[in-house]
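User: Sequence in, structure out. Go.
Assistant: Echoing your sequence, followed by the structure tokens.
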Amino acid sequence: MAQILERLAAGEEIGVADLDHGMEVLGHDGFAGTTLGLEWDTLASDRVTAHLDVDERHHQPYGIVHGGVWCSMIESMASIAAALRIAPAGKLCVGVSNATDFLRSHRTGRIDGVATPVHVGRLQQLWLVELTRADDGKAVARGQVRLQNVELSQLGS
């Protein structure tokens, strides 16, 4: 993972195919990967992309995607982007706010996400994540996640 962080710090964009290990950092075996189904596409210090193949698992009772899916996708993407940005400093980050707007309903098919930084400071970061339909490029949701940069010793206090 150290090699990946060095490449990101040098301004390289990393394709997920380049990651031969370390997928646990991206939540591949946790909630984002296993439960949600989020797939990471590219990683860079100023942009992270991922996609989600939406199906009936993601629906609320009316047959459209549950808003919590969009919130989860947005928070997962912003959290990974922020974590990769602060990791070279030996810090972690935790989410403190997620404001997600639902723009249009969706039933099935691929959704592409792009996370970009609005502000990266010493103590906090703010990331914008935009989710669009792959088939027509229309926006389905957008959100901002604010994260606190912390030392590992600060967690749980």
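User: And one key feature?
Assistant: Residues 67-86 form the longest helix (20 residues).
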